[in-house]
Amino acid sequence: MKSITDSMRETLGDYSLKAGQRVRDREIRQTIQRYFKEVQDDIISFAEKHLVKLEEEFKTIRSAHTIGFDDVRFDDPVRDALDTIIGESNMGAPLTAEEDEKRRKAAQARMEDKVPPGYKDFKSKPDPLGDCLIWFELIEHAKATNRRILFVTDDVKEDFYVKLHGRTIGPRIEMVTEMAEKSGQSYHQTTLEGFLRSANKYLDAEVAEETISTVRSAREHASSQMVNFGPIDRVETTSIPDQSDPSAVEYELLLTLVQKVEADVGEDAENFQSVGMLGSVTAAAEARGDIETLKRVLNIHFSIGSNLSTVLNTQMSIARALMKAQQPAEAAIYLEGAYADARRAQSDRRFQIGRLLADALVKSGQREAGRRVLTEVISDIEAKPAGHSRLVVSEGRRSSELYRAMFGKDFQTGTNFE
User: Fold this and answer.
1) Residue 30: CA atoms inside 13 Å, Cβ hemisphere, count?
2) What share of the chain is helix, strand, coil (3-state, %, to 5)?
3) What is the pTM assigned to this prediction?
4) Which of 20, 25, 50, 49 is nearest to 37 (CA)?
5) d(Cα 294, Cα 298) in Å, to the nearest integer?
6) Under CATH, what is the fold of the domain 244-407?
7) What is the 8-class DSSP label of residue 410?
8) Would you say 162 and 173 are in contact if contact means Cβ atoms under 8 Å apart?
9) Residue ranges of the domains in the chain?
10) What tens digit of pLDDT does each residue of 2-54 get?
11) Which of 22, 35, 111, 353 is deepest in the core (most CB within 10 A)?
């Protein structure tokens, strides 16, 4: 604690010497310096008086929130939690020496040609191939599992993200295209802060704002220890003309992409690179209420035979945009087909689609039809196998709350969704 007060004294002492230096009158200069010295002594005295108490508080906090080394050797709760989350079932098989060498040679060539991701580390790390090797793993995982990829990374350098006017827009187009070409899956990436905020918004998670702020501070601190590539999501203080607005520019690029995909579909429904970006188009078009573009995307999915989940997501985006535009009757038309398909396939999406359909029907004046759909949704939830208890509680609670809000009374069910 002494070093802190010594540093304060040294800093404040410099200011007291500088105070009044440009004042020619000796008496006035000495008076200014004397007052600075008195203020300095008051600040140091206050700090010394309270630092002891502060140090005691820190000790109490440390003892409550840290684990001694001897304890960790035999019982490490953090390691135990990680073992539970990761586990052998969530880890892939190790590469053979031959495959590892092959991938490293491929990564080296990509770094030299500045192919994302990872080339910004090429000359700054002893082993700069790590990001690219992870990228190869992500592609292989997407192919093996036939699932879309969401990669959470706080590496916000330009070899991972597209940046425009100082603002981070999204993953590099080359990465999205490569993922679609080699695995047939869509790809998106976000920072840990962005993931936590999205989890709160879309997954009903309850991550505290304090936790998210801590994550952001940790990322900013880590970035400050490295080369400064500029802050993520920095908003320009200077005004940007409308035609140069990053969001508008990005959206125009996405619309151009839709045109390209439509043209490619006409030539060969199975041979085009940009389909992996259609998810981004859907999200952006829904946010802007661009119903016509959403319908174009849906037609593309029908033309190329996209999987049911993708089609359902697009139909729901159209319906939400129509509801927002005060067109519930038209929204119900899209949702009726989606709901029937989801029920036929026993997709868990049928619950969410059913709630949206019931809402659209009620708002378009078809109250009894909405009641029948919502009753059917709750009955389907009750019929779920016991192993889906979390899903039953979550979907059942949402559906019951909607029923209560719509019809002014509780749905009579034998299942407790609380």
Assistant:
1) 3
2) 70, 5, 25
3) 0.42
4) 20
5) 6
6) 1.25.40
7) -
8) yes
9) 2-72, 98-224, 244-407
10) 455 666 666 666 666 666 666 677 777 777 777 777 777 777 777 777 777 77
11) 353
